[in-house]
C-alpha cells in the first residue's frame, strides 16, 4: 500500500491496517469528489500534504475536538480516524458538509458529527465545550484566536497548522492573548518530505472568554483587537 510505505518509510508513522485502509478510502473519495475540495489531484502528494502534515506534530490526542473551517475534513477527519477522540467538523459551506456527511457514512465512522454554520453563530451554543480546537488553512493567527477561543474549555488547547509566516502573524496577537484569555503554549516545527516547512502553533485557554467574542467576521477583519 502506497499510503503505508510513505508514512512508515518517509515519516516513521506507523498506523494499524484498519486505520490505513480508512485513510486510504478517504483520500480516494476526496480526490474523486465533484466539489473543488482540494487543489491536490495526486494521491502521493495528498498523503504528504493531507495526512503526514496533520499527523507529524501530534503524538497523542484525547477528548472532544472541534475542527473550525474544516473544508474537506482536514485535519479533523484524519485525527478522528487515528486517535480515540470525538470530533465535530464545522464549516459554513452546506455543500462541503453534505459531502462530509456522505463520506463519514461511507467510512463507517460513528464518533464524529458535522455542523453547517459560521463559527460566530455556533459559538453561541457551543462555548467552552471542547478540549481541543483545530484549524488549518483558514485565516491568520489573530483571526483564528478570536474565532476559536470561545469553543475551548478553560485548560483546553487550540491547534493551528501554519506555514513559516506564523511568526509575522503572531506579532499582532499580544493584546489578543490577554483579551481572550489564551497564551502561546508550544510551537512544534516540522518539515514535509515535499519540502514545505510547517508549524503547529498550540495555545492554551487560561480563563473564560468574554461572551462578546467572537465578533462578526467582518468586524474581526476591520477592527483587530
Automatic annotation (TrEMBL):
<keyword id="KW-0808">Transferase</keyword>
<feature type="binding site">
    <location>
        <begin position="91"/>
        <end position="93"/>
    </location>
    <ligand>
        <name>S-adenosyl-L-methionine</name>
    </ligand>
</feature>
<feature type="binding site">
    <location>
        <position position="69"/>
    </location>
    <ligand>
        <name>S-adenosyl-L-methionine</name>
    </ligand>
</feature>
<dbReference type="InterPro" id="IPR003682">
    <property type="entry name" value="rRNA_ssu_MeTfrase_G"/>
</dbReference>
<keyword id="KW-0963">Cytoplasm</keyword>
<keyword id="KW-0489">Methyltransferase</keyword>
<feature type="binding site">
    <location>
        <position position="136"/>
    </location>
    <ligand>
        <name>S-adenosyl-L-methionine</name>
    </ligand>
</feature>
<keyword id="KW-0698">rRNA processing</keyword>
<keyword id="KW-0949">S-adenosyl-L-methionine</keyword>
<comment type="similarity">
    <text>Belongs to the methyltransferase superfamily. RNA methyltransferase RsmG family.</text>
</comment>
<dbReference type="InterPro" id="IPR029063">
    <property type="entry name" value="SAM-dependent_MTases_sf"/>
</dbReference>
<dbReference type="GO" id="GO:0005829">
    <property type="term" value="C:cytosol"/>
</dbReference>
<feature type="binding site">
    <location>
        <begin position="119"/>
        <end position="120"/>
    </location>
    <ligand>
        <name>S-adenosyl-L-methionine</name>
    </ligand>
</feature>
<protein>
    <recommendedName>
        <fullName>Ribosomal RNA small subunit methyltransferase G</fullName>
        <ecNumber>2.1.1.-</ecNumber>
    </recommendedName>
</protein>
<comment type="function">
    <text>Specifically methylates the N7 position of a guanine in 16S rRNA.</text>
</comment>
<dbReference type="GO" id="GO:0070043">
    <property type="term" value="F:rRNA (guanine-N7-)-methyltransferase activity"/>
</dbReference>
<dbReference type="Pfam" id="PF02527">
    <property type="entry name" value="GidB"/>
</dbReference>
